[in-house]
């Protein structure tokens, strides 16, 4: 049951505690989609005149590194608990996710 592991993304966009938020998804893949979507929305806000915005993985990594905090909690069925993962893990999974979409 690797594919449908409930995933919670914990995020803080700036140093202000009020920017803490979380998003939950039915799978790791959907969570990575969500993080890419956040970045794409930010790009559209910054470049409203550009219709088709493209970016590469280093741009996404810079966005992820620019967040004050980012981590994931992924449900592990074998121990029936959530396991924490850090920013590096999220970057690695985002790269895998984008590679899959590119094929």
UniProtKB/TrEMBL annotation:
Please list every transmembrane segment annotated in the UniProt record, as residue ranges.
none
Q: Which InterPro entries match?
A: EHR_sf (IPR035912), ERH (IPR000781)
Q: Quote the PANTHER family the UniProt record gives.
A: ENHANCER OF RUDIMENTARY ERH, ENHANCER OF RUDIMENTARY HOMOLOG
Protein origin, superkingdom: Eukaryota
| Keyword terms | Cell cycle
Q: What does this protein do?
A: May have a role in the cell cycle.
Q: Does the keyword Cell cycle apply?
A: yes
Q: State the family it belongs to.
A: Belongs to the E(R) family.
Protein name, UniProt field: Enhancer of rudimentary homolog
């Amino acid at each position: 049951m690797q594919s449908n592991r409930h995933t919670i993304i914990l995020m803080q966009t700036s140093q202000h505690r009020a920017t803490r938020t979380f998003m939950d998804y039915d799978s790791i893949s959907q969570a990575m989609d969500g993080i890419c979507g956040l970045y794409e929305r930010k790009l559209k806000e910054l470049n409203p005149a550009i219709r088709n915005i493209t970016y590469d993985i280093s741009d996404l990594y810079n966005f992820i590194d620019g967040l004050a905090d980012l981590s994931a909690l992924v449900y592990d069925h074998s121990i029936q608990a959530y396991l924490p993962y850090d920013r590096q893990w999220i970057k690695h999974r985002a790269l895998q996710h984008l590679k899959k979409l590119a094929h």
